[in-house]
Each structure stands twice: as C-alpha cells, then as structure tokens.
Amino acid sequence: MLRVTFLGTGGSLPTSNRNPSSILVNREGELMLFDCGEGAQQQMMRAKTGMMGLSSIFITHFHADHMLGIPGLIQTMSFQGRTEPLTIYGPHWVEEFTRLLSALGYYKLRYDVKAVQLKPGVVIKRNGYSIHVLKTEHSIASIGYALVEDERLGRFNREKAIELGVPQGPLFSKLHSGEAVNIKGKTIRSEDVVGEPRPGRRIVYTGDTRPCEAVLNASFGADLLIHDGTLADEKADWAMESMHSTAGEAATIAKEAGVYRLILTHISSRYSDDVSPILKDAKKVFEHVTVAYDLMEIEIPFKD
To answer: Has 228 been annotated as catalytic?
Structure first.
C-alpha cells in the first residue's frame, strides 16, 4: 500500500475549507508527514489515518504555515502513550526548532524527538525505499523530497520453471530471489525464469518553490508529482516575487518530466471558492492534473 492523504492544501493563509500545508504518506503502515501546518493533527483525526505509526516528519522550510502543527501533534502523541522516538527532518534551523520545542516547560514527552538537518543531495536509505533531498527555490532555505521505492523482483515465470523440471515449492522462492538451483545435475539460473527487475513507485513533493531543475530531474517518470501551484498564470509576476509557482509552470515541469500524475497544492486563498482558473491553466499544458483539496486520498498503484 502507498497512500497519500492531503491534510492541508492551502497557501500561506488558511481558509474555511483549506488548512495549511501538510501531506501524509502511508507506506505499508509506516506513516510519514511532509510538512505539518497548523491543525494537522485534527485533520489526521478527521481522515482516520492514525498518528501513532508516524515515524518521521519532513519539513520543507520554516515558514509558519508548514510547521506550526508540530507542537500540538507531538504532545498529543505523548498523551496517548507514545514511547517510540520521532525524527524531524528539515533544512537549516531544524535543530534549533526542535531544541525550542524541548525547552518549552509544559512539554514533558514520553519519547525522544530527534532533529536531522538535511542538505540537497542527501539520500536517506530505509527498508525498501529511500528519501532523496532536493534543492528547491523559495524565499528562505528550502528543500523538497522524493520518496523512491527500491526496484522490485522481476516476474516469476511459473510455467517455464515447471517446464525446466523445477518442482513447485521452496525452489521457486530461491529462483525468484536470484539464486540458482540444481535439478538432477542441471543448473537452473534465476534469469532463466525471472524477468527484468521492475521499478518501484516514486512520489515527489516540492513544498513551496519556483520551477527548478532539481525538481524536474527528480520527477522523471514519477508516479506522482505534488507541486506548488499557488497561483493562476495571470499572477505570474506575483508568483515570481513571492517565490512560488503558477499552475502552468508546475504543469510544464510535469510534462517535461513525463510524470504519470500531477497534483497541485498550496492553493492561494484568492481561489478558495473557485479553483477553475488554476485547473484550466494547468490542463492547457498537462492533462493528468488535479487540484488538491483537504482530506483527499489517493492510492499509488504499481505500474505493472
């Protein structure tokens, strides 16, 4: 399972129907937050995602609308009996931010909160996947993230294995995992019955950014690109001044990278009642696009 829940999809200002930025990824039961805007824990409750399985929080930058939900969330998990450590990743200032949380007198957590400062180019290797840190372009120090799953084993050709004399059972597993087996003096190699390795899934999350090369490079062939789409194209000058992206600019990145699906988020409050200008501008460039809304959930399937 690889599920993405959009807890908050608003721009700098919350609206009646959009919370500040926060995206939850559930990969095989492990929960990861990418940004944690104000009210994120309430959105988790509304979406019934759970929170005790949260392993990490990945912050793109330290503007308030991307991190003010952290204090309440970590205290709630402590009240609920959490004892497992939590890691907060982020750019410059993440260590100072976490120390400030610990220094607040009313925080007596039952678990450790660890800070890890990241720079573009860092790869965090985990079981079955990795998190790649991307250079983004915003008005303060900022980074983006790509969740990249490991390659999967190729398809096992059961019929071919039987034809070669391999009995059904444990030898099938050995062959599928890359080992050769010996059947009556004849060596059967894994590549005789197993196809080419298959790619895992890839999700890219930009946070707040101008269109940039690092995001483009990380997005080639991605299953999902979640990109800053703060403004419609008519506000291109404002997007440049505030170091955000327009819908058309985000769609151009998606098209050039050949992503499977684009979702625009961090939507300006000026479109709180009507996102059609943003969607229209994006669709002029890239067809497979959606404007995110709060509590939207999507499943990312394997391509084959």
So the answer is: no
pLDDT digits over 167-184, tens only? 888 878 887 888 888 887
> 105 pLDDT band (50/70/90 cuts)?
low
Q: What angle do CA 215, 56, 289 make, to 5 degrees?
A: 35
Q: 129 vs 91, 124, 151, 207, 294, CA distance in Å?
A: 21, 9, 9, 20, 27
Categorise residue 28: left if φ over 0, alpha if ψ from -120 to 50, beta otherwise: left
* pLDDT tens digits along 221-242: 999 999 999 999 999 999 999 9
For residues 120 and 146, is the Cβ–Cβ distance under 8 A? no
* CA contacts within 13 A on the Cβ side of 117: 9
- Token output for 204: 């890219």
φ, ψ at 158 (rounded to 5°): -60, -45
**Tokens in use for 92?**
């410059």
pTM summary value: 0.92
The CA distances from residue 53 to 21, 82, 93, in Å, are 20, 9, 25
**Catalytic annotation, pick one of 65, 208, 233, 281:** 65
Domains and CATH numbers, the chain: 2-152+198-299 (3.60.15.10), 158-193 (no CATH)
Closest CA to 262 of 211, 304, 194: 211
Average of pLDDT values for 120-129? 97
> What's the rounded Cα separation, in Å, for the pair 24 and 110?
23
Task: Quickly state the pLDDT bin for 249 (edges 50, 70, 90).
Answer: very high
- Using DSSP bridges, classify how beta strands 30-36 and 224-228 pair: parallel, antiparallel or unpaired: unpaired
Which residue is it, tokens 């890890």?
116
137 vs 153 pLDDT, higher one:
137
